Amino acid sequence: QVQLVESGGGLVQPGDSLRLSCATSGFSFSTYVMNWVRQAPGKGLEWVSGISRGGGVKTYEDFAKGRFTISRDNAKNTLSLQMNALKSSDTAVYYCSVSFDGTTYRGQGTQVTVSS
After folding, report:
1. DSSP code of residue 90
2. Taking CA 58 as the corner, what is the angle to CA 54 and CA 60, rounded to the nearest 5 degrees?
3. Which helix (H) or strand (E) holds 19?
């Protein structure tokens, strides 16, 4: 079955960096576009960034541009998100996501808390 396992979250101060990872299994990772989404307390899911199958095309929501970098390793079936210059507004649960055959899959998420 499809499995997505996020890790790397934590409690950091404003301006710090974190690197999130997503280990995947149960589907052909290199075949699909992958995304990061997040959910802040009391809010809905928000798209953060996406990456093409080969990794050559990367897209970001405006708040992530210049601070976040998405990447993938198709040999290891893993997705990453490097987050720099973190702000309190980045506090959220972060999920990796893939969609195919009419279904969207997400993992259990990893909590990122940015607070002084």
Report:
1. G
2. 155
3. strand 18-25
| Residue 88, SS3 per DSSP | helix
Average pLDDT in the chain = 97
Pairing of strands 10-12, 18-25: unpaired
Alpha-carbon span 60 to 56, nearest angstrom: 13
- Torsion sign across C-alpha atoms 99, 80, 26, 74: positive
User: Which residue in this structure is represented by tokens 């995304």?
Assistant: 35
Give the residue from 37, 36, 4 showing the smallest Cα distance to 23.
4
pLDDT at residue 84, rounded to an integer: 98
pLDDT at 10: 97
| Spatial CA neighbour of 92 closest among 4, 5, 18, 3 | 18
